[in-house]
Design brief:
By secondary structure, the protein is mainly α. Helices cover 70% and strands 0% of the residues. The protein folds into 2 domains: 83 residues, Rna Polymerase Sigma Factor, Chain: A, CATH 1.10.1740; 91 residues, Arc Repressor Mutant, subunit A (Orthogonal Bundle), CATH 1.10.10. It starts with a helix and ends in a 6-residue tail after the last helix.
């Protein structure tokens, strides 16, 4: 990022190569699985990175910084569209199950049923609790990284994650085994 701040084009291209797929998936899963919207947001994200070069703190991780920008873009999108996840029928968390490997369900029918129930339960959560859960379990960010992304203390992230998982566990207890 130091090289990017010095207007090094190769360094920017390297950052783009490292983060483009990850951030595209981030936008795709959070913005109604709309591929075109995700692509647009990805381009906007990297334009914001270039526009805000001087705001990057080189003592912090770039990944946390870019996720924070992306998370704010999603929040703005939710507000602008005045859509909630409860109203979005196109959102599908089956990729969450496939990518984490943490849910051992017997059949495709079980996976679809679980994904639908998980989708409903996540939709019922607050935006921040949902974001904490997805950043941790879908994007694989650490507690300190999530803390940076959401600009809140690590203890708050741990607490939100604990209670969110506990609530989901209670609601989805039929899948416990």
């Amino acid at each position: 990022m130091l090289l990017v701040q010095k207007k090094n084009e190769k360094a920017f291209n390297e950052l783009y190569q490292r983060y483009a797929k990850r951030m595209l998936f981030f936008f795709y899963t959070r913005l109604y699985q709309d591929e075109q919207k995700a692509q647009d947001c990805l381009q906007d994200l990297f334009m914001k990175v270039l526009d805000k070069l001087d705001t990057f703190d080189t003592k912090k991780r770039f990944s946390s910084w870019i996720y924070a920008i992306a998370a704010n873009m999603c929040k703005n999108e939710y507000r602008n569209k005045a859509r909630s996840w409860e109203e979005d029928e196109n959102f599908d968390l089956s990729r969450l199950i496939d990518t984490t490997g943490s849910f051992a369900l017997e059949s495709e029918t079980d996976k679809r049923y679980f994904a639908n129930l998980l989708q409903q339960e996540l939709a019922a959560l607050s935006e921040e609790n949902r974001m904490v859960f997805l950043l941790r379990h879908q994007d694989g960010l650490t507690i300190p990284e999530i803390s940076e992304v959401l600009s809140c203390p690590e203890g708050t992230v741990k607490s939100k994650l604990f209670y969110t998982v506990k609530k989901l566990n209670e609601k989805l207890h039929v899948f416990k085994d």
